[in-house]
């Protein structure tokens, strides 16, 4: 009996060892692919950083007024671009390494991943455009409201910014096919909730404030027309 | 000589029938024949005059009085005026071409209401060109205490400090030109190979080293339409000033000090007693701006200026003042931020409105009961501050990355 147990254990060890032995080249291939991709990422990053700096990429991007690219955020656009390219190369290297394990299983995974990639890119673009639009329009509203001496200028600006960001976020999640109908419904509730809150705030909470503001505006108009002040 | 654009064939034909003329008077904003007759009667004094005005019913020409021809031209569809509100900048191109074609010695383009023209005005605007050999006549309007504040606070002192010429209304749109200056303005810009920009002709004349003079006119400055808001016009005027600063950097960096330009006619000042203006809303706008627009102001203004602004927010009522040096530095700092494109330019210019209103409130309180002489002193003090602080602009223009506390 002990002989049979020992034989079974030997066979099991042999099977595991064989299995590990068959996986080892795959592991090695993964490690090599990762090392090579790290080297390639470093080389590409080095060349990219030098070429971007040579034509003052940071200075040019600063003029586009993109969110998160200002010097006070501590991230320079050149660093960001180098990191994006570097991580893309490393991920590609990882996918190549993974493919060396089990051709049929991993190639299915890789194929699905690549099929999903356009959604990720589209969602990223939506978020980027949404971020830029939110920043631009909230600032426009803030400046316009301040110049009109609207006391709740900041509130208006922040409200608009979050409306655009929520809209962009919901659109991005839709592109990523995450959450399905829940996102649509949650967005509708959230968006509707924000609008309703603002309407109630103005209609009930700030009714007196708004009426006083309008009265002041109406009272000021004829007064200004008789003033001897001309800007031009 | 390269000429920009060309007149429609039918206008050229009419010009051939007219022949030559001594003077061309362009009236781009005229809208009735009554006004035309009035100008014609004034203009017909020993000179052969062509009055050019736009028409929507095709080109035509006719003799209105002896020696006075009326030429109606059709304004070609163009995007040239799309970026400028009507009434602020004029349509010069067609009048220049007509003037060149008829070989006029000089031409006057009157963009504002023609009813304001009188024989005295025509004389003041044309005589320096005909008899004194000047190239450009810029009107100087009657000075009003709280009138033309953008001009008094920014345009006049900045142009004076930067370009060295004391032209009081350099952005005026009623101007007179010599034939040689008209020829120059019709040439393509040698740098860009595009038609010259006619929106700030006085600066063009200064850069070209031409002879400029002022004509003291017995009228108040023209006003833009009531609907135009302060923020929009301020952004547009500042945008023009700052763009010209970039374009003419080599010129203004060489200029030092300032000189008067010759003036003709009698200078008039409106006699005013105490002027009262409601300044509280302007102070409130400034305080609101200080609380909410810091993110934008930080891009343009150094910390020391911020500290000064913070002190101003604590001032209330009649004690509210903005020192001249502070205002000058704000204007120069915004010009530098505009050049560096540190932020969207439209946002930057519009964000200056609360600061401008703070200056207006301070100025209104300071000259409330001042005499004309005191008012002149205050404006002169500001202009001198612009000249005194010019090295600051120059230094930061040349070395923008240098530490600026």
Description:
- The complex is a heterodimer of chains A (about 230) and B (about 400).
- Chain A is mostly helical and about 230 residues long.
- Chain A folds into two domains: about 100 residues; about 110 residues, Helix Hairpins.
- Helices cover about 85% and strands about 0% of the residues of chain A.
- Chain A is elongated and about 110 Å long.
- About 0% of the residues of chain A have low confidence.
- With about 400 residues, chain B is α/β, with parallel strands linked by helices.
- Chain B has two domains: about 260 residues, Spore Coat Polysaccharide Biosynthesis Protein SpsA, Chain A; about 120 residues, no CATH class.
- In chain B, about 45% of the residues lie in helices and about 10% in strands.
- Chain B contains 17 helices and eleven strands.
- In chain B, strands 3-4-2-1-5-8-6-9-11 form a nine-stranded mixed β-sheet, sandwiched between helices.
- In chain B, strand 3 and strand 4 form a beta hairpin.
- In chain B, helix 10 packs antiparallel against helix 15.
- The interface between A and B is medium-sized, with 25 and 41 residues.
């Amino acid at each position: 009996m002990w002989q049979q147990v020992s034989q079974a254990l030997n066979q099991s060890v042999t099977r595991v060892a064989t299995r590990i032995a068959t996986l080892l080249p795959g592991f090695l291939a993964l490690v090599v692919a990762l090392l090579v991709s790290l080297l390639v990422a470093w080389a590409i990053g080095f060349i990219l950083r030098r070429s971007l700096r040579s034509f003052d990429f940071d200075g040019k991007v600063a003029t586009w007024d993109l969110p998160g690219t200002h010097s006070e955020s501590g991230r320079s656009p050149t660093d960001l671009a180098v990191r994006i390219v570097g991580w893309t190369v490393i991920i590609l290297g990882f996918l190549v390494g993974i493919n060396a394990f089990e051709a049929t299983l991993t190639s299915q995974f890789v194929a699905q991943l690549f099929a999903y990639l356009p959604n990720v890119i589209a969602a990223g673009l939506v978020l980027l455009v949404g971020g830029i639009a939110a920043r631009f329009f909230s600032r426009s509203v803030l400046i316009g409201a301040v110049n009109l001496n609207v006391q709740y200028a900041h509130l208006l600006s922040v409200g608009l910014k979050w409306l655009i960001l929520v809209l962009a976020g919901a659109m991005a999640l839709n592109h990523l096919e995450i959450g399905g109908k829940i996102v649509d419904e949650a967005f509708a509730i959230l968006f509707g909730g924000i609008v309703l809150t603002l309407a109630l705030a103005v209609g009930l909470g700030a009714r007196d404030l708004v009426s006083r503001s309008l009265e002041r505006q109406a009272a000021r108009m004829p007064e200004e027309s008789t003033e001897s002040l001309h800007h031009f | 000589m390269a000429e920009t654009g060309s007149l429609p064939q039918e206008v050229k034909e009419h010009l051939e029938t007219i022949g030559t003329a001594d003077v061309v008077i362009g009236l781009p904003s005229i809208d009735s024949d009554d006004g035309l007759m009035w100008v014609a009667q004034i203009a017909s004094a020993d000179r052969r005059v062509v009055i050019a005005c736009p028409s929507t019913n095709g080109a035509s020409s006719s003799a209105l009085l002896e020696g006075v021809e009326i030429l109606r031209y059709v304004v070609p569809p163009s995007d040239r005026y799309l970026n400028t509100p009507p009434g602020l900048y004029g349509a010069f191109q067609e009048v220049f071409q007509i003037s060149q074609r008829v070989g006029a010695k000089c031409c006057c383009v009157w963009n504002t209401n023609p009813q304001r023209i009188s024989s005295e005005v025509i004389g003041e605007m044309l005589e320096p060109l005909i008899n004194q050999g000047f190239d450009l006549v810029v009107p100087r309007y009657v000075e009003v205490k709280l009138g033309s504040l953008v001009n008094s606070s920014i345009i006049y002192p900045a142009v004076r400090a930067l370009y060295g010429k004391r032209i009081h209304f350099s952005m005026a749109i009623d101007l007179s030109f010599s034939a040689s200056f008209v020829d120059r303005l019709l040439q393509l810009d040698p740098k860009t190979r595009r038609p010259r920009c006619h929106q700030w002709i006085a600066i063009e004349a200064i850069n070209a080293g031409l002879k400029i003079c002022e004509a003291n006119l017995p009228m108040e400055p023209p006003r833009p339409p009531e609907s135009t808001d302060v923020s929009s016009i301020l952004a547009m005027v500042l945008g023009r000033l700052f763009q010209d600063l970039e374009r003419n950097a080599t010129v203004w960096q060489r200029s030092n000090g300032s000189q008067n330009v010759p003036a003709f006619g009698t200078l008039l000042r409106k006699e005013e007693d105490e002027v009262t203006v409601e300044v509280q809303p302007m102070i409130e706008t400034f305080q609101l701006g200080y609380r909410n627009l810091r993110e934008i102001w930080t891009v343009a203004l150094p910390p020391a200026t911020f500290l000064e602004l913070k002190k101003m927010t604590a001032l209330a009522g009649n004690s509210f003042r903005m020192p001249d040096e502070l205002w000058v530095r704000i204007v120069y700092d915004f010009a530098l931020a505009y050049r560096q494109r540190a932020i969207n330019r439209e946002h930057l210019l519009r964000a200056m409105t609360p600061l401008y209103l703070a200056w207006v409130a301070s100025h209104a309180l300071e000259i409330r009961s001042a005499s004309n002489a005191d008012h002149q002193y205050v404006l002169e003090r500001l202009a001198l501050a612009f000249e005194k602080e010019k090295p600051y602009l120059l230094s930061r223009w040349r070395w923008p990355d240098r530490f600026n506390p």
